[in-house]
């Protein structure tokens, strides 16, 4: 155990290299189980110039550089927050460098949880970010999952009020929806199945959220859940709860691949106001730092009809190369089904 210092993977050479300037020590929490838990589940975000921002779960934050043999620059603490093991961090606006952190616990197992919420605003690499505490969630949680939506809202699902592995005691069944416009949370319709330790949640291309699993604690364990549910966010409904009419992306060119800095031509079946990219997520152990949202600059093409010019950022630390979902949103905020885009 321990000694999990940084390594760098080169996809062209298909090789790994140690980065002695990026030791694991700066990210450790003060977990009472020692190194077995102190280095778990880091919140890491790729940024400009080969830098990586470490937002937690330790209260100490850091910048890492992957250049040469690596380097580490302390980035201050996450406000007055405590260690937040098995909490969440979501890059809900990669252009503005906005990270939402929610919940967690000082110790991995057998610990009261937190309802703390902070917004971390990144600037240049190696520069301390701005950390803004906002109103807490309605429920304290650990082992929950958080999913960024196409409009920048963040859905927080599941978790326990008291952190305990392989347990459904003190389960929180009510999701909460974060609004970046008001910096507040609204309680949503409850789940029927707890989603705790080893559960996952990800955004689907139809702009709904998959929440499933939990447990994996052997035959007969009551915390095992071999099922899933789909959450349909409010943006898919009208104010009278009828199903909203969704815009459709008829064509998007180019898509596979689209170069960093390129302009896409996107045609929809009806007028839209906004576009965003959301990176395909990979969730495990309450961590999904693959997911990130990039709001896109767009304008009418000038050729008439519902055709738009959509600009992909030129910075790989914002639009990280890989597979993304492209969403179009109408004036009501209702998103389309996504088109898959490969940014390279």
Structure description:
The protein has one helix spanning 35-38; strands at 7-10, 15-18, 43-46, 51-56, 60-65, 71-77, 88-93, 98-102, 111-112, 117-121, 130-134, 145-148, 154-157, 162-163, 176-179, 184-187, 199-203, 209-213, 228-231, 249-253, 263-268, 274-279, 293-300, 307-311, 322-329, 339-343. It is mostly beta strands and 344 residues long. Strand 3 (43-46) and strand 4 (51-56) form a beta hairpin. The model has no long low-confidence stretch (mean pLDDT 96).
List keywords for this structure.
1 helix; seven-stranded antiparallel sheet; mainly beta; globular; 26 strands; single chain; 344 residues; four-stranded antiparallel sheet
Summary?
The protein has 344 residues and is mostly beta strands. The protein has one helix spanning 35-38, and strands at 7-10, 15-18, 43-46, 51-56, 60-65, 71-77, 88-93, 98-102, 111-112, 117-121, 130-134, 145-148, 154-157, 162-163, 176-179, 184-187, 199-203, 209-213, 228-231, 249-253, 263-268, 274-279, 293-300, 307-311, 322-329, 339-343. The strands form seven sheets. The chain has a seven-stranded antiparallel sheet, with no helix packed on it. Strands 3-4-5-6 form a four-stranded antiparallel sheet, with no helix packed on it.
